[in-house]
Amino acid sequence: MNSSSSEEEVLARAADLVRAFGSHDREAYFAFFDPAATFVFPTGPFLGSRSAYEQEWDGWESSGWRVLSCTSTERRADE
To answer: Rounded to whole angstroms, how far apart are CA atoms 24 and 35?
Structure first.
């Protein structure tokens, strides 16, 4: 959280990200990530960019995977 963002703003953006993921809105979900972001999943490979994650997502979708819902609990934003 940067000093110009209130906790409420940060939590609202996080809720937007969870909502996009939970509704399987790929475009909205990936818009939250910088193109140079990196991703680490406990059961998968290190992904060195948003593009690499999008390609991994494509593979999951082609195998029938789909996000059905997502819930975030005990949310907090710490500096």
So the answer is: 19
Q: How many Cβ atoms sit within 10 Å of the Cβ of residue 64?
A: 6
Residues with Cβ within 8 Å of residue 39, at least 6 apart in sequence: 46, 47, 52, 53
Query: pLDDT tens digits, residue range 22-48?
Result: 999 999 999 999 999 999 999 888 999
Task: Evaluate whether 38 touches 47 at the Cβ level (below 8 Å).
Answer: yes
Closest CA to 69 of 25, 14, 11: 25
Instruction: List phi, psi (to 5°) of 55.
Output: -65, -40
Asked whether the beta carbons of 56 and 38 are under 8 A apart, the reply is no
- Entry pTM: 0.83
CA 72 vs CA 3, 13, 16, 32, 54: distances in Å:
24, 12, 11, 16, 22
